[in-house]
Structures are given as C-alpha cells and as structure tokens.
Amino acid sequence: MTGKSAEGTQTRCGPEARSTRLRALLSDLGADSLLVSHLPNIRYLCGFSGSAALLLVERSKSTLFTDSRYTFQAREEVSGAQIRIAKKGILRAATETLRGRRRGFRVAYSATHMSVAEKRLLEAGAGVRWVADGNVVEKLRAVKDEEELIWIRKAALLISDVFRRTLPLIRPDVTELDLAAEIEHDIKRGGGSGPSFETIIASGPRSAWAHARPTSKLLRKSELVVLDQGAIIGGYCSDMTRTVHLGRASARAKSLYQAVRDAQQAGKQAIRPGATAGDVDRAARASLKTSQLDRYFTHSTGHGLGLEVHEMPRLGKSEATVLCKGMVLTVEPGVYLEGFGGIRIEDDVIVTANGCDDLTTAPRDFLEL
Amino acid sequence: MTGKSAEGTQTRCGPEARSTRLRALLSDLGADSLLVSHLPNIRYLCGFSGSAALLLVERSKSTLFTDSRYTFQAREEVSGAQIRIAKKGILRAATETLRGRRRGFRVAYSATHMSVAEKRLLEAGAGVRWVADGNVVEKLRAVKDEEELIWIRKAALLISDVFRRTLPLIRPDVTELDLAAEIEHDIKRGGGSGPSFETIIASGPRSAWAHARPTSKLLRKSELVVLDQGAIIGGYCSDMTRTVHLGRASARAKSLYQAVRDAQQAGKQAIRPGATAGDVDRAARASLKTSQLDRYFTHSTGHGLGLEVHEMPRLGKSEATVLCKGMVLTVEPGVYLEGFGGIRIEDDVIVTANGCDDLTTAPRDFLEL
Lengths: 369, 369
Fold this sequence. Notes:
Two copies of one chain form a homodimer.
Chain A: H1 14-25, E1 33-36, H2 39-46, E2 53-58, E3 62-67, H3 71-77, E4 82-86, H4 90-99, E5 106-109, H5 116-125, E6 129-132, H6 136-142, H7 146-166, H8 176-189, E7 194-195, E8 200-203, E9 224-229, E10 231-233, E11 236-237, E12 240-245, H9 251-269, H10 277-289, E13 302-304, E14 311-315, E15 328-331, E16 334-337, E17 341-344, E18 347-351, E19 356-358
Parallel strand pairs in A: 1-5, 3-4, 5-6
Antiparallel strand pairs in A: 1-2, 2-3, 7-10, 8-9, 9-12, 10-11, 13-14, 15-18, 16-17, 18-19
Helix pairs in contact in A: 1-2, 4-5, 7-8, 9-10
C-alpha cells in the first residue's frame, strides 16, 4: 500500500490526500477510474455524508453524483470533487458521464457494493470496460490517518464514559429497552451523533444470544447482563461490550468471565504489525481451549472499525490480512451457553509499532452490581 | 394481486399467510422458488429480524439460512420456515441446498437486492435457472394486513405524542443535536425500539436542506425549524415532519406554510383506490404551482411505509402504481428556499375504501413557539 509512512500510519489527512493515494493504485487495478458506490467509501474519499450518491474517481478529477435533496449539503461537505446534481437518477447521470469517455475506458467497481440491477443499467448505458476494484478503498480505509484517529479515539472515550455513567442504572427491575434508551440518549448528550449500531442489552438466558435486540424483559437479580454499545462522533464509530452480574456471581460465572478475559488478553498480545488477522483469532481461541470453552465461542474475534462499525480486516480463523500500524480493531471473544447465559468482553485497540494500545477506557473487571 | 379481500386489505395475517400468498404468485413469475435476500422481505415472510440471512421459499416449504450468532433468536422468531445455521457462510449454505434441486429448477431473485458478487457465487455453485422476481414481495408488502396496521398505527401515534411532548423543548439556545437526542430518547421511553431514521432537525437557513443531519447549531429566535422524525415499534415505521417558527413568523413564512399545507391537503384529496401514485404527486405539485412555488418542491410527494421507512409505492410524478385500500403512505410536500429556509409538512395516511385516513395525530397548524 503506497502513501504510508515507514510505520504504516497514513500521514497526510483528509479526503483529497486519500483520493491521491487511491489514484496511485488505479494502474495496479488495470483501471482508468473507479466508480465508488459504497457510501462510507464516498464519504472517505470526498467528505459527502448523504444517503444517495455515486463517486467517479478519475486520474485527474473526481465527480460526485447526488440528487437535489443534497444540493446544499454537498456544496458544504464535498472537497476534491465536482458536484453533479442528477435530475433523472444518479445512476443515469453517472452513465451519461461514462458514455462521454473514450472507447475502452476502464472503470473499476465493487461487485460487493453494486447490485445486479445497477450493474445492468450501467453496462447497458455506457460502453466502458468494467474491472474488479479489489476492495481498494476498503484496504486504504483499514489504515487510519491522523484525522480519523482523532475521531475514533473520541468515539471510544465517549462510549467508555457512557458506560461508566450507565452503571448505576444497571439494576433489577429496569427493562433492557430502558437501559438501551438511556445509553443511546447519553451518547447524544455526550456529543455523539448517535449509536453506531442498535445497542444490545441481553440479560439472563438471553445473554446467550450473541446479537440480541433489547426487549421489555426486566433485569433480575443473579443474572448476567451483556451490554454491547458504540457511539458515532464525526462519522467514526466505537464498539464496546461489557458483561456484568446483578448481585453476587457464582463461581462458574466468575471462572467463565476470567476465561473470556484471558482470551481477550491473548488476542491483544497477538496483535502487532506483521501478524495476520488469523493469528489474533487463533490466539484468543487457543486460550479458551485451555478451559474447553472454545466450542462456545461462536463468532470471530473482532473486526476493523472506522466509518463503519464493521470494516476490514475481519479477525477470523483463516484471515491472511497482515496487520499494519494505524489499523483499528475490536477484540471481542465471548462464550455463549444456552440456558446459562453469555459473556463477551470487547475493546477497541489501535495497532502500534510494537503491539497495540487500548482505545477503550471502561473498566474490564467483572462487576457484581 | 391475489389473496386480498374485495376492498384490498390483506385479510389473513402473519408470516405464514404472507408466504402462502407469495407461493400463489410463483407461477406468474415462471419460478419454482424465490430466494429472498432483502432482510425486511425475510422478516415479512418468516418473522426473522436478524442482520444476516437468506430465505428460500419453495412451493411446499421455506428454509431460512442464517449464522450461529442467531441460533437462539431464529428459533424464537421464525414461523413457517426450517432454520439452517450456516457454518461456512450463508451464501454457501443456500448454494448447497439449491445444488440439491432438480435440473432446470427455477429460482426467482431480486436484482435490486442482490450484489453482483453474491449472484456470481450462487451462479457458480448451483446449476439452477435464475429469473427476475418482479419485486413480488415488495408489491405484497405495499398492502398491509391487519397485524401490520396495528403496529403502524401505534408507530404513527407514538411519534405524534413524542412531538407534542417535545414542543416545550423547541426554543432558542437548544442545539439541533440536543433536540434530536430528546426526541429519540422519548421514542424509546414511549415503547418504541428506536427512531425509524436519523432524526432531522434543521433550523434557520439549514432548514432549506431537505435531508439535513442535526448539528451543534443553536436554535435562534425568528428561525424556521424543520423536525422530521419517525419511530419503530414492533418492527414497523412511522415518518412525520413538522415545521415550526421560533417567535412571530413573517408574513412570507406564513404564506409559504399555508401553501405547503394546501399542497398536502391537495395530495391527500387525490388519494383513493384506483388513483395512481403519480396522481397524488401531481395534485400536490399543481397546488404549489398556483403560488409559483412548485419549482422549490425538489423531491417527490411521499412514499410507502411499513417494515421500511421507504417502501413501495413512491409518490413521484410519473409513477403508474395504482393505489389500493390498505396501503400506507406518507404525504410530505415541502418548499426549500436557499438563504431563507425550508418548510415541509408530512403525515402518514392509510388508503381507505373511498379516500384516506390520517394516522398521524400531531397538530398541523403553523406553530409560533
């Protein structure tokens, strides 16, 4: 990946520097341009945060296509791209622009982020050659620049503060939904633009659902409560899970918690530039295996974090992505025992020159509330 | 559309009745089955609300493919479909199932809701024939059944109540973000699972941005404030806009407001079974034209509403969709004058046998706060 400092962190900041880095990679793709359809990628490359757009990045210019709802917003947000307000559909406007390019003009695109219908319309309308984008923007995005890190640090700090302020509210006879509402409200009071995903509050046996939506179930004494929450600030996400116990925890709950905490520590210790994403996952899984708990760990160890709450790299068993300085990752092992409950501990970390640093500051001890 | 009562409203409720209605339409598509990839369509047809799934609806059975995060949730939520927990990817599991079907087995799919990459994987793995789904599920969803209407009515009532409770907070020196936070918190306090989209609060000149995100800008005296908000309850959405004025409004603001209100009334009066979506849009636009304001009305008049905040039909100028009893629509004309500000009024209505009924109960008068 070009455009990085020796240690990996992106040195020049902001949409225009990112577009410059992207342009340097177009030849490797065998492309003259990239048609960007994934909104977070568009935001990354030109600053536009609206909900409908296409961005065409060519060697010497970029063009943002959006619709009339976003005329003023685009003017305020966009840097390094011309703005085209499409009157008859964004896709059609982009098609018309591409039709004006020379024969054989090569356009890279993401097969993951373009629908079959969109591709058909573009193919029918513009006589260009389509090539795979190789997730080039997602790969650039995996290594954060300083401007991005400022926001991600804020987002991680904010959700840690929210958790600390929420602790007194985690008590019997509060509903999961009420607790989620308080957390999401506090994110906004704290300056965030909102939660980075629908807050997960899962208590008692429901804590064994790794992705449970909060319900009107009341929290009860002697239950585990999994709280998985994140904040968005400046467009950037945090993602943090804590598991607490209402009242005194059983020896079994304590030992499960310790096993998950050890697994998280093992995962973090495996993080360094040069290690692979798979190394981290295997380290966490191996740690749980020492107490025969690995079969209850039913998801991957973590994921990248930035403009999206799930981005590259995925910390899965067989992921070969090599970690670089400046990547931001979640480390979130968990165990889920049907009938008993679940425990997950999740922090956000940044990959440093020698290892990783925690961005999440909330306490990691097993809290008996 | 089959499976409707004489008046149009879907009579039998719930996922299994919906799947039955869908199965009756498979022959019209020239299909033996439908592979559903759009999550709201999956929820509609089998009740599953997780974030990763495919649903294969065949003539005599349905199969839901999801991953291990959702084992317990799927068991609790799904009706009328077998559950397959995919160990190596949902797409791969679906491909394997399709590979087991007879030669020439025809699978309908949505080109809009399937990515080029997903389609490629499915095509490579399963030797079946692919046919267009003609938005068959979206068309079924446009006409609500009684169970859905109960939730949509609740969602519309909830957001109306939230707006009434929010009124005392709409005052100078409150930030747009704080106001949005209070609204979203109150949605949850009122029993909603959350906002149906990121609440729009746009004050002063920013009110001319039809889709403005709330910012840290303070509300000021003598400003217009556009509040566009919606709630989700039981999975169903409401969507409502009100525009208020801080302090005494100018004659110009008042006359603009009245023009938008008249346009909304004209739009509602055009709604009845047999009218087209385009008729409604043209009626609202014609009303604004009488005061030369139609060129400031830069979006369509409304859209369907249900499990998604934007669904079929779109109330756009040249939309030919014929309205039926049981459809739920927003009616939301607006005018946006750069430098001056914007005004939008939006209600949710249900199409009745003779016209439409308001679901939104919040006051529509021009409030000077």
